[in-house]
Amino acid sequence: MRPAVLRPDHRLSRRRFLAISAVLAGAAVAPKRAAAAAPLRVWEGQALGAHATIRLVGDNGAADQAFAAVEAEIRRLEAVFSLYATGSEIARLNRDGRLDTPSADLVEVLSLARAVHHRTDGLFDPTVQPLFALHAEHFARPDADPAGPPPEAIEAALARVGLGHLTIDAGHIGFDRPGMALTLNGIAQGHITDRVAMILRGLGYRDMLLDVGEIRALGHGPGGAWSVGYPAGNASGVLRRLRLTDRAVATSAPFGTVFDAAGRFGHIFDPARGFTGGARSTVTVTAPTAAIADALSTAVVLMPDRALGAIGFDAEVCLG
Questions:
Q1: Which positions make up the binding site?
Q2: pTM tops 0.85
């Protein structure tokens, strides 16, 4: 499959290769045994502009109400994390440089982002939004230099990157440098998936496969563990499979989504250098929660082999 090219109004996650590859098309219920009699209820919708699905095993008579609760929760969280909704919390923070009385969800996600940032030697950094915006604006021009933005522009953007320049507490969130901005597209989808799982478990469901931006499996499918496909390195269309029970999985591919038609400029940025040269072609991470898998898969594509054993969080890395 060819990489997707970002346009000025492109709303794909900047790192969500799963959303544009055969992985989600192949992420399916594949029971080891013949399907049991338990019914399977399926919901389809949208979350942060991407297609989302939920598969529930067993219908306790309240699936329709459960799906309505899921939709309400997704809409609530989009009002926190969407980069494209002008009134969202993250949009207001990026516009004003400060956000007072942030939601508990935003504080929780940023606190986890800081923990992953520390564990990955700074490679996971949601303040790379200025680099993303620079490349999107550059390649949106009809006369764009195919070599990319000029070095001085990249240096200026890098001066506005750094999670250490973000204050996070229950009372306010703010930048200490002008022109900084956040993107949480490398972790928010996972958080939304985890919140949906929490709601469904609270309503009595125990066996489910969620794809609400990231994939999380709880319990079992109709006939065994859930089976989810992930890309086998550079082999286009080739999937390897994971059997998941009470685990989440996320895949990142720097050049799965690109800014330029030649496919040289990918959408995951090194926060210290500003480019993705030398990045792995694709990485899949499993973890206890979708938010952790989401964030770590972003960083692991940039990590050297020697660092992979120290990422923690009870996560496992599946290189292509």
A1: 186, 294, 298
A2: yes
